[in-house]
Write a structure and sequence with these properties.
The structure is a homodimer of 478-residue chains. Chain A is of the alpha+beta class. The first copy, chain A, contains 18 helices and 19 strands. In chain A, the strands form five sheets. Chain A has a five-stranded antiparallel β-sheet. In chain A, helix 1 runs antiparallel to helix 3 and helix 14 runs antiparallel to helix 16.
Amino acid sequence: MKRTPKHKPPGPDTIDAFVRIVGASHAIRDEAEMAPYLVEWRDRYRGKAALVLKPGDASEVSSILKLANETMTAIVPQGGNTGLVGGQIPFESGHEVVISLERLTHVRDIDLASNTMTVEAGLTLAQAQAVAASAGRLFPLSLASEGSAQIGGVLATNAGGTAVLAYGSARELALGLEVVLAGGEVWNGLKSLRKDNSGYDLKDLIVGSEGTLGIITAAVLRLFPKVAEKVTCMAGLDALETAPAFFARALERAGPALTAFEILPRIGVEFVLRHGQGTRDPFPSPHQWYALFELTSPRDDALLAPLAEFLLARGIEAGEIADAIVATSLSQSEALWRLRELMSEVQKEEGGSIKHDIAVPVASVPEFVARANRLVELMIPGARPVPFGHLGDGNIHYNVSQPPGMERAVFLANWEALNAAVHEIVLDLGGSISAEHGIGRLKRDLLPHAKQKIALDIMRKIKAAFDPNNILNPGKLL
Amino acid sequence: MKRTPKHKPPGPDTIDAFVRIVGASHAIRDEAEMAPYLVEWRDRYRGKAALVLKPGDASEVSSILKLANETMTAIVPQGGNTGLVGGQIPFESGHEVVISLERLTHVRDIDLASNTMTVEAGLTLAQAQAVAASAGRLFPLSLASEGSAQIGGVLATNAGGTAVLAYGSARELALGLEVVLAGGEVWNGLKSLRKDNSGYDLKDLIVGSEGTLGIITAAVLRLFPKVAEKVTCMAGLDALETAPAFFARALERAGPALTAFEILPRIGVEFVLRHGQGTRDPFPSPHQWYALFELTSPRDDALLAPLAEFLLARGIEAGEIADAIVATSLSQSEALWRLRELMSEVQKEEGGSIKHDIAVPVASVPEFVARANRLVELMIPGARPVPFGHLGDGNIHYNVSQPPGMERAVFLANWEALNAAVHEIVLDLGGSISAEHGIGRLKRDLLPHAKQKIALDIMRKIKAAFDPNNILNPGKLL
């Protein structure tokens, strides 16, 4: 399979024809005005585009793709531009056309008996949550970037977050999709069914395909009962090794009431205490690790606090945890969550940070961290690993802060070598080199090493079946 | 796309070569011995085969497919032979080779911290449930045929059952697969990860593909906490119209504790009372409809009965239900479930039955039943609809018993015409013509009418990408 995209730069007539589809007021040709669509928010990727188009509905997206397919114009679909792997940013050629879905913001339907809502791709995740809440329901997907991230992008990247443990990732939360395919055909897969065994599962194939198989224009999303009671707990652990057993204990007893289970290392908490405003050490004495977990219920029958206390008492008895807190007020709960939420941000204050978004089986998390930490010390003595994240999903953000005093650029020069070595451990443990963030541009060249050849072959054939002219987000993912 | 399979009848040398792969003692060439593999259990489909092969591991399955692909031999994968749409039965040509996965029964791994088990395709569903139970966990998928149905077939058909409401169907319960592809390549997708965004979702594409894209040889399955407390309830309803509101009420309050929600019509209950041994009318006076639902919890804290009573009291107040029972003993619970479990079987005693396995959005179930019932009365006056099943999934088994006294064959001659008319209503309501059972042979020719052309086109391209010689279960599904 050739990697060279077949696409061509759009000529002036083609550009005019694209503009006519959406109307001049919804097309951006000016380079300065295009800028916000061409830079990734952390400024890690910068590209150029021939044009930014803001279609108003699926039918305009269809006309754009039909023309793009006929003229071999490469298309970069973009949602809220919050992606972390560069999938939403065009390359530097300036030949690509960015399609922003931001104007597709209708809520098409809410069905309370079926517990579904049908929303368009440009609605932000926070708006979708608000729509659900105003209908007395919960849309559980929640991410740091939810104020900007759009439903289309969330689905195209199969976004995760802290509620995957109980509710699943974006894929599991979407029952149906409306998708514009490469030739401009609109696939109406907007089913709101829990059971549909009438043919291949195109929905799940398109979710997570990062805009390379089609452009999602609307989705049927699952709704859940509102949370009426919530208890946040934190446990202090002497070692990470006992965390999976304590997690398994909590899950066994709490079942679906266990809606989040995160881990934080002492060094990360210290970073937060050092740089995060108004934060304080959760326990009188420090612990090597912290487990932050949450129990929720659709009923307000005050049963979660006793359940939490039972779990924590048993965990202490079993030697799995050393100390524990049950937040008794909303502000105490928020203070505990703040330690977790600031964990990414405060790492900037400690200099350069080399990041990994990986998953391994839950039981293998301690082994992964131990092996990766040893490796870091060998490769970059003095570098400070800050592994944290979603233990309940085996999804660890294995971030490594630079040794104090080292030149930032010198440290960051190790990025690719460290990634490669850490990914070896991940693959050895049956893990994934991209748990949540996707492949995009960042990890495209790592994929052939991480995936079995036959899996990549099949993926390439699927891509060719959907998009024979390779106009959809070429050079991303595959 | 040509429908004519490209496959050829295997000659004597090819047959010998197939036999050598598995060894003579695991190959059946004798027609009489092959018989159990060639007949569907209800005797609705009968076929012929050149050979039945019982490979002992994935590597033998690989060798078989490699040879089949080279010799253009058509392959029919078979699990427990419990399918309801003929997908597992060869055609009448006698040119196909049946591969039974029955010898692949190893439990490769159980990981309690990660809550997963890795099992081979030939394990029966009941055995898989037992493996989980003996490890102190629940594997929630449950079906009438679980004693014979095998994990491979369960996944190949994305089986559902009564626990989909809380736990999802087979697709949602499998985290990873090992699959032998048409060319004999073994795709090792046995990941036990909740989060993996490293490329297209091949796992979900293969689940539900009915043996047309590859042969599943092993799977990583999700485990859940054991059920410690269970309460079964039945409500009597004056009309189906109020059932979705009562279901929504129950779900809103009980959340994930609501693990089943079924509906039964009065006529079905009467059939059960007439033909089912030791059954009795659940309420002092009859109701038009019955809702049978179950609350479960991983804790035995006696909270479910009060919750059930609360839900039922509110349902009565709101006029959604007319009367209610909370089973206070295991035998009472079993008696209620027996009314549901006998519902299929007793229909045989009432003469011919024309069946539909459909899903519509939950909110549309009453409209579907009303429209379908009117249609039945117009098309076959006196015929008796017995719609029952998984209201919580919008999945209704719309079965129609013949008018009393009509010639069975005369009634059954309406099968296709009635199916077609009922499916029109289903499609009009945004539903699916196959909710649980799949497409197989039974519904293959209905698919072009039920699916959008672009969806079928994409499905055919995917099939060609996976299986260019069309050797895998040709003539099924697509």
